Predict the 3D structure of the following.
Amino acid sequence: MLLQSRLSAIAKDSVSTPTSPPAASPVVPNIFFRLRYSPFLTQMVVIRRCNLACGYCSEYDRSSDPVPVQVLEDRLRKLKELGTFGISLTGGEPTLHPDLPRLIRTCRKLRFYRTSMITNGFFLRPEMIETLNQAGLQKMQISIDGVHANETTQKVLNNLKKRLRWLRDHARFPVVISSVIGACPPEEAEEVVSFALKMGFSSRVLLVHDSHGQIKLNSQEIKTFQKIVDMLPRKWPELSSYRKRLIHDGFAPFKCRAGSRYLYVDEYGRVNWCSQTRTVWSKALMDYTRNDLREQFYSYKPCHATCTLNCARSNSYFDNWRRQPGFSS
Ligand code: SF4
Ligand code: SF4
């Protein structure tokens, strides 16, 4: 009953929630600064709570309230002032936030280059998908761990097929399915990728990581990973060559530009390098300056060589040719 009323609140959001446009247009840095230091992507936690409890996950709790929408809108304006290009709304599980459509509309009004979200997909219904269409969502990412549920994960194809078909039939935004290797028998990851491609979604393969962002796979999982890479469109393996190096050599050094090109803003409004280093370094977003972006761009991250975090890696890629004191490959 509770769930039903929350879902209908989200579905009716476009008519029941008054739209509050940004108070004043944020002053955005000039394009030269943005191209040198601004975040390509910020992942912003809108609620820490999740309806699931995946055994490998350290990014959720069972009880926290949604971050108030006005607080999140202030954070979005601040991110715009820092020159952020793309926003990804995340959690926990972001569809548990009753004001998710309003947040997406605010992102679109602020003219972020791309507004996306990450979800486990469990609450998707045709009405909710239509509401997300209307709000202007530009991309949805769903991670799926395998086919059959087990004691580690419920985030599996058998629990999600119906919702994926609804997405195929209703979504006007691109959907990316990430098949995650490490929580189910590895051959199930292949079935996830085949199903996603058959539905017309983009697909990719991720490696489950520990709470420090480090890889942990056995030899069978490694073989499956390589097989899946061959199933994916041609350009994908090139972009993910670091995963092959992690698997073969155990390390794949890179100049991590977290804190600059990639921000992870937690529910308390603190900028962290990433979800896995929340106890290592952070600073309040509302106090964050262009100098912080510049400083963090050049700041050496000691965990880089074995890091599996695709978002930080892909958003650092563009600047690989630029210096970072302390880095040696
Ligand atoms: S669904 Fe996502 S956020 Fe929730 S417990 Fe699983 S991995 Fe963590
Ligand atoms: S290298 Fe960067 S993204 Fe990876 S764990 Fe370290 S700080 Fe996080």
